[in-house]
Amino acid sequence: MPPPTELGSTAPMENVTGQSFQATILQLLSNQQALMCRMAEQMENIQENVQSTSRNELVLDSLASNITEFAYDLQQGNTFDGWFSRYVDLFEKDASKLDDAAKNHKCRDCGQTGHKEGYCSCFTSKTNFKRFTPKQQNHATKIVTVNNVKRSRRFVETVINGVPVELQLDSGSDMTIISKQNWFKIGAPQTSLPDCKVQTASGDRLQIEA
């Protein structure tokens, strides 16, 4: 008499094998989805870091090119209050845009904190500034007004349309602008709409009227 067959147990085994395979596939898909989510999050963080670094670079360049190192000299009138007042706009506006990492950045060239690589000499002394000699101008000039200027406070007195006017000196600016108050002071000459877009050293849009 032949032994009994075990064909009756084949179907349940195939069912268990199919369920295990399906569970494995579902687990792989779940792992893949989790991996894609982590990669997307990492890419977003990288993009934010790049944008933050670029913004910090612009602000640091502006600060390094406009702020001189403080050197106390009471006989020459070089006090901290006087020095700080010249750059208060930069400290309160431009520097406030820096994140904590940029504010505490340590220069790899000299080991000091407070500036980026390549600007060590900017924090010792600046002796390469050319002396500005204002010249009287009686001819018509292009006049623009400004809502906000993020620059250090250095002023010179010049003459426009025969009227003495005190202007803020910025040797790195590509254009000359005056306030609406000074525009009225020199007789409110005829103006025209601006034909260019103006940005500050930190990359912000500068609104001008004419």
From TrEMBL:
Origin species: Anopheles epiroticus
Gene Ontology BP annotations: proteolysis
A GO term for molecular function: aspartic-type endopeptidase activity
Domain of life: Eukaryota
Domain Peptidase A2: 165-183
This protein's name: Peptidase A2 domain-containing protein
Keywords in alphabetical order: Hydrolase
Family matches, as Pfam families: Asp_protease_2, DUF7083
Gene3D superfamilies referenced in this protein's UniProt entry, alphabetically: Acid Proteases
